[in-house]
Amino acid sequence: MNKYDCMIIGGGPAGLSAALTLGRARRKVVLFDNGTNRNRVTQESHGFLTRDGIKPQEFKNIARKDIKSYPSISIMDQTVIEITKDDKSGLFLVYTSENNSYVSEKILLATGIQEEFALPQIRQYYGKSLFSCPYCDGWELRDKPLAILAENEEHISHMTKLVFNWSQDLIVFTNGHQLSEKVQNDFEHKKIKVYTDAIKDLHGDDGNLYSLELETGEDILRTGGFVVPSFYRPNKFAKQLNCQVDENGTIKTDGAGRTTAAGLYVAGETEKGGPSSLMIAAAEGFKAASSINMDITIDRF
Ligand SMILES: Cc1cc2nc3c(=O)[nH]c(=O)nc-3n(C[C@H](O)[C@H](O)[C@H](O)COP(=O)(O)OP(=O)(O)OC[C@H]3O[C@@H](n4cnc5c(N)ncnc54)[C@H](O)[C@@H]3O)c2cc1C
Questions:
Q1: What is the pLDDT of residues 213-270, one digit of tens each?
Q2: Hey, do 3-113+233-300 and 116-227 end up sharing a CATH topology, with the first three levels equal?
Q3: Where are the domains positioned within the chain?
């Protein structure tokens, strides 16, 4: 079987940046991408230097075009379903949903994270009028009548204070959760209304939010807002390959992408199991790729 120097699982900014770096370092690499990058639901990406406002698919297309200049890199639009390690040879075996298998010396996990929402209706509006990152989408929602949708007091307090910088026309919806007197007073002081009633439904059209309907029957008009989802890793590869994880759920690394499992590296949001940005994920992909290249170099020199 054909052996690769490295297999990259994930074709978001972390994986693509690593592929570019390893291609330029003349490594034989295959990158797998099943098109579930987290920002696929959004219309425009912001804040990536030189690419402010780019569509997520265009961002990927440009990155893939850049990578094509380096013939030792292949990109496969396949889902990786299992990764095992042969302890004797130290090599990894990667299996895909198309019943193909591949052998590699190193693995880079750049599989990202996914969101989970307390209210499933949020998904219809997520990426168009409801967002989770004010740095990414706050500018587009500036000065608009916005909803802050979250359930945990710490999250509510943090997100509301942050978003207040972009719009002071805020209403907080806690979906049935109570807030402490201190937080209520802080919000009242800034003229931020709070509804602690459970939410019955969200109303809007084609992803554009119009209003939030409470169980009490009240319908509150809002044209967009920010939510605080829960995040999880969409697959179990890190666990199956025995990567150590710290008390916060972050995969332990040396700060340059090397995990505690020999030959296994991580980059991008999958490392922390929490949100970051395209720029940070791409930078971490570069960093992990440099570690992979250095380790292969030392092994073989
Ligand atoms: C609505 C929304 C708007 C956003 N807007 C911005 C913005 O404006 N600016 C900004 O900087 N950031 C933005 N972000 C955040 C940004 O999308 C993430 O920070 C970034 O995508 C993380 O990169 P990543 O490479 O770690 O993961 P991802 O981009 O999520 O990529 C993960 C990759 O892994 C692949 N994958 C996963 N499992 C498998 C498998 N088993 N087999 C094969 N492939 C697999 C996926 O297909 C995907 O290619 C936004 C996010 C959302 C949700």
A1: 999 999 999 999 999 999 999 999 999 999 999 999 999 999 999 999 999 999 999 9
A2: yes
A3: 3-113+233-300, 116-227
Residues lining ligand 1, Cβ inside 6 A? 9-15, 32-39, 41-42, 45-48, 79-80, 110-112, 126-127, 131, 133, 136, 234-235, 268-269, 275-279, 281
Is residue 87 a contact partner of residue 242, using CB atoms and an 8 Å limit? no
Query: To test ligand 1's pocket by mutation, which of 269, 270, 271, 280 has the most ligand atoms within 8 angstroms of CB?
Result: 269
The arrangement of strands across the sheet holding 130-131 comes to: 130-131, 224-227, 146-149, 170-173, 193-195
CA–CA gap between residue 83 and residue 116 (Å, rounded): 25
Q: Ligand 1 atom 18: the closest Cα is on which residue? A: 277
Domain 3-113+233-300 has CATH 3.40.1700.10: no
